[in-house]
Design brief:
CATH topology: Rossmann fold
Distance between the termini: 42 Å
Largest sheet: 7 strands, mixed
CATH class: Alpha Beta
Number of helices: 11
Strand order of the largest sheet: 3-2-1-4-5-7-6
Radius of gyration: 18 Å
CATH architecture: 3-Layer(aba) Sandwich
Structural class: alpha/beta
Shape: globular
């Protein structure tokens, strides 16, 4: 196990453990690798920009931002992903400063960054408003907050809804992650602290899977939240079979049976007031 440098409450410790399961870096590279470059392009990151990537995982957005010449700090809650990202950036000769951090309590000063990014990252923090407050706090006036979040109606949003009966109840006061993929929710979180907001629904083409069963096998092996759901029902063969069927059917309904899926996400770029 990679040793953590920060102390977390039980809710966030559990959250961190979920994302340490499996191999999210593999998912990030093999399945959703196109999201990071798309986010960096939309954020219009330029050489010399001070960029913070929050809930960066292993660097899906951090590395392409650094490749543009930006001064990048990448943070994540999960030490295992940080270490993978650190190795990946070093191998590519990219200068990225990796830090373990809680998105709800970012260890940076006010107005410290020109651009703050999150690529399907902070959307999974359980308490949305304090995270939104932190994104705004660390981004300078006139700077940009750029995010990619899975939509509630898209495939990943529907997958989390479908897994809900198979996982423990969420912590009181938490909000489902895919709500970050609804533009009205984002506007409410940022309120009058932004001068403008551009939002666009896009589709990520996914040709990695040949069937619903293929998708189920891959995500049950590599994707932390799916692995956690299977562990939660491991002692109940009927529930395990039901989870299998739910994921296979959902993936087939979204195109896996034909070898091509489109996963909807919301791209948001907000200018800080």
């Amino acid at each position: 196990m990679t040793e953590s440098s920060i102390t977390l409450d039980p809710i966030k410790s559990k959250h961190r453990a979920i994302w340490a399961l499996g191999d999210y870096d593999r998912v990030s590279v093999e399945v959703v690798g196109g999201l990071g470059p798309a986010l960096v392009e939309a954020a219009d990151i330029r050489p010399g920009d001070r960029v913070l990537d929050v809930a960066a995982g292993s660097g899906n957005a951090s590395l392409p931002a650094a490749a543009r010449g930006a001064c990048v700090v990448a943070t994540d809650l999960t030490p295992e992903l940080i270490e993978t990202g650190r190795q990946r950036s070093a191998t590519r000769g990219l200068a990225v400063d990796w830090k373990e951090a809680d998105a709800q309590y970012l260890p940076f000063g006010d107005d410290e960054f020109d651009v703050t990014l999150s690529c399907v990252g902070v959307m999974f923090a359980p308490f949305h408003q304090p995270v939104a407050d932190e994104l705004l706090r660390v981004t300078r006036s006139g700077g940009r907050i750029a995010m990619i979040n899975w939509t509630p109606e898209g495939f990943i949003g529907q997958m989390f809804a479908a897994m809900k009966p198979f996982v423990p109840a969420p912590p009181p006061g938490s909000t489902p992650g895919p709500r970050w993929g609804a533009v009205d929710h984002v506007r409410e979180l940022f309120g009058d602290r932004i001068a403008g907001l551009r939002a666009e629904r896009r589709l990520l083409p996914v040709d990695r899977f040949t069937s619903g069963a293929d998708f189920r096998d891959y995500f049950a092996t590599h994707y932390g939240p799916t692995l956690a759901a299977y562990r939660n029902v491991a002692d109940d063969p009927d529930l395990t079979a039901a989870l299998d069927g739910t994921l296979i059917e959902l993936a087939n309904d979204h195109g896996a049976v034909d070898g091509h899926m489109d996963w909807e996400y919301l791209l948001v770029v907000a200018e800080v007031a």
